[in-house]
């Protein structure tokens, strides 16, 4: 073993070797980067040898060279890359949630590539505030007196609790102490904010008197967390804003509702879920509402706070507002996204809205058209299959959308092998397994995705 380890060439020797210099020239590396890659390759080889893993090449130099070349091939490539989403989950948390509309992408590009009036009032010729950029649009769409934007909804929750309830009690039903993505819990966020959690009721039942009996001179707020990412069934009782707003008004408390998903469209009227709109919550008397920008709203990651002006103004002045603020590209994307809601005819340009509302028959048509384009392949078989899609992104957990997709089978390859091949293609293709076969749900596939899939499958067919 010791002899094997000693046979790995010295780093400085490999650095000056013509073959390694060729790697540098091929991938446009600096000496510093090349040295780092050679060291990483040699270290990995050393660890493999210690673990008893035999090298592929006969010489240690060739082994390090091959590993260095593999590392160099990846070097300088974007780590954040496009993925074809064939899972059927519209708001796929791991795949970036909402896709932006073309209008939003164009606006982001324009603002990112030039100077802008981010904090400058063109009309008055003096310093302005980034808080005003999306505020008027949010007010118009939701009916709120005021609004502000931070970098995500967890930040919105934290700012509200920190800014308006620090050192005071906030009443929350036990049935709403949820954990959101990445193991962030409402109770933990509240603890970090300095607000004191006052749990009431039980996991499945919270009565109005539970809230009323918990109110004392230290109470600042009643917080309701909308259960958009989970569902409790059976023997349950909960209190709606209709019951809670009069209680907060009578005791001069803040009524704050964390909606999470942030729907601006009444999907209920189309028979899709039971998610309330932000406007409905505002009209019901909520003092504050917070929600995400990249879920049902269909925009960039952001946390939007809407509600009574006196509370929003206080939050805008809080020191954390600067810490949690969004950048110009996020505001540009959000502004362009919100404009879709002022012109309802433009909603079909919003990918999230379009993907949720597309009919199963239209999805089926897309899948059938793809099959016709693929009919010349010799080693790949596609089988049309009815399925159900999910909205995802922690929204409408029980909602299933009728859809269609294709079982994909490649001769001599197991389903998991095909899945890996597609996942490692460029662009990466992510699907799911249905009935133990690899499956692509066409609900979430764009025309560009489908064109790329044609090229990817044709290449797989030729290599088989």
Name the descriptors.
single chain; about 475 residues; alpha/beta; Aspartate Aminotransferase, domain 1; Aspartate Aminotransferase, domain 2; 3 domains; seven-stranded mixed beta sheet; about 40% helix; globular
CATH A-level architecture of the largest domain? 3-Layer(aba) Sandwich
**Measured distance between first and last alpha carbons:** 40 Å
Which stretches are poorly predicted, pLDDT < 50 over at least 5 residues? none
Helix content: 40-55%
Q: Let me know the number of strands.
A: 18
CATH homologous superfamily descriptor of the largest domain: Type I PLP-dependent aspartate aminotransferase-like (Major domain)
Major beta sheet, strand line-up: 5-13-12-11-10-6-9
**How would a textbook summarize the main sheet?**
7 strands, mixed
Q: Output the number of helix runs.
A: 19
Q: Could you say which overall geometry the principal axes of the C-alpha atoms support?
A: globular
* Assembly state: single chain
Structural class: alpha/beta
Mean pLDDT: 92
Number of domains: 3
| CATH class annotation of the largest domain | Alpha Beta
Catalytic activity: L-seryl-tRNA(Sec) + selenophosphate + H(+) = L-selenocysteinyl-tRNA(Sec) + phosphate
Function: Converts seryl-tRNA(Sec) to selenocysteinyl-tRNA(Sec) required for selenoprotein biosynthesis.
Modified residues (N6-(pyridoxal phosphate)lysine): 295
Enzyme class: transferase
